[in-house]
Amino acid sequence: MLRHMLDINGASALVTGGASGLGEATVRALGEQGAKVVIMDLEHQADKAEKILEDVEGAFMPTDVTDVDQVIAAVEKAKELGPVRALVNSAGIGWATRTIGKDGEYSSAHDLTVFRKVLEVNLVGTFNCIRLAATAMSGSDPDEFGERSAIVNTASVAALEGQIGQAAYSASKAGIVGMTLTIARDLAAVGVRVNTIIPGLFDTPIYGQGEASEQFKERLSVGCLFPSVSVLPRSTRRWPPS
Ligand SMILES: NC(=O)c1ccc[n+]([C@@H]2O[C@H](COP(=O)([O-])OP(=O)(O)OC[C@H]3O[C@@H](n4cnc5c(N)ncnc54)[C@H](O)[C@@H]3O)[C@@H](O)[C@H]2O)c1
Q: What's this model's pTM, rounded to 2 decimal places?
């Protein structure tokens, strides 16, 4: 069987949401393999990003994944650092709200602004980064196998088994799953691989802080069969580990 691994040593990589959680872990993993990493995250995450860049070669580009000009600027920065060989879409938001309220009033139904915002960031933002990064990737030289780059998107188990209050989040993640194969077919022509991961639960700042957040996480973890989150020591549940 042919074994081939994309060589990212000395190349550049883009990571959205790269200042926190899964994105941060990805930035560090890519850096360990010799990639120069452009962290694309919101401006208020600048301090966290700069701290990561003490350990990883690359740059922070303040980027809202839904903003065309900011994404192009980040992609251009990556091109300056080396051929763009990877994009990992990790930026994401969640918002727990039930479809209807408890009082029977129309005004208590799920806020459409919230629904649109979650789709805009998670689904439209992911596609925006793919289409612009892939445009830059298509102009780079392929390796001996004809491969130019790889793209990894982050969906969620909620795409397949959303829980109560996750209508917007589940829809956005199911959208990512749904578009993956189509985009993979589109980009195969230029030697760019496209995959989507569907993680289960892991403890990151996405769940917020405080008592309500702890209760929400406990409720979600009830669905974890084995190993159950409650049997894991607290220090192993969170990224970065405490
Ligand atoms: N934590 C989990 O249990 C879990 C499970 C399944 C999937 N996921 C997905 O994994 C991905 C990473 O989540 P995490 O848990 O590491 O969360 P996190 O909150 O630690 O990281 C998300 C990052 O995305 C950034 N971000 C938010 N909106 C953005 C925008 N518009 N533009 C650019 N950056 C933006 C945030 O600033 C943050 O740095 C998300 O897509 C999330 O939906 C998480």
A: 0.93
